[in-house]
Every structure is written in C-alpha cells, then in structure tokens.
Amino acid sequence: MARAYDTLRYRLSGSDRAKLMDAQYTWQQSDAQAGDLDKTLGGGGQAAALQRAEAALERINTRANELEKYARR
Predict the structure, then answer these.
(1) Which residues of 16-26 are buried (b: 16+ CB within 10 A; e: fewer)?
(2) Its domain of life (predicted)?
C-alpha cells in the first residue's frame, strides 16, 4: 500500500496531491476506528485475535488495490 501511495503522491501536485493526502488520512482514521470496533465486539482469545488480524489485512488489501488502480491510470 505504501508503494502505491508514494507513487501517486509523487506523481500528483497541488490540489490533487492534497486530496490524495486527505483521503489517505481519512482512510487511516477509519481503519483505526474499525480496528477498535473489532476489539470491542470481537471478544478475547486467540481465535478472536486472528479474526481481528484477518479483518485488518483485508481492509489494508482493499485500500492497496484502490491506490494501485489509481496509479495505473
């Protein structure tokens, strides 16, 4: 994800770069909130921890795919 984000960040300038950076910041905040919710609702134990990790990886993978799609344009 970082590579795709950096590619876009260096390719864009001005207001387009600012929009990308704002969108990434918003995504990071949303991801943190989703992680907190997973912890609250997910319960304890090793199985719950693995499910939280899987959910986090899925969120990151989805965002990385979005950024890579934009980078290919």
Answers:
(1) eeeebeeebee
(2) Bacteria
- Name the DSSP letter for residue 44: S
Asked if residue 5 lies in contact with residue 67, where contact means CB atoms within 8 angstroms, the answer is yes
Query: pLDDT tens-digit profile of 29-46?
Result: 999 999 999 999 988 889
What pTM was computed for the model?
Answer: 0.86
- Quote the pLDDT of residue 55: 95
Output phi, psi for 13, to 5 deg.
Answer: -145, 165
The Cα–Cα gap between 57 and 1 comes to: 11
Asked if 9 contacts 19 with a C-beta cutoff of 8 angstroms, the reply is: no
CB count within 10 Å of CB 38 equals: 19
Cβ within 8 Å of residue 64, ≥6 positions away: 1, 4
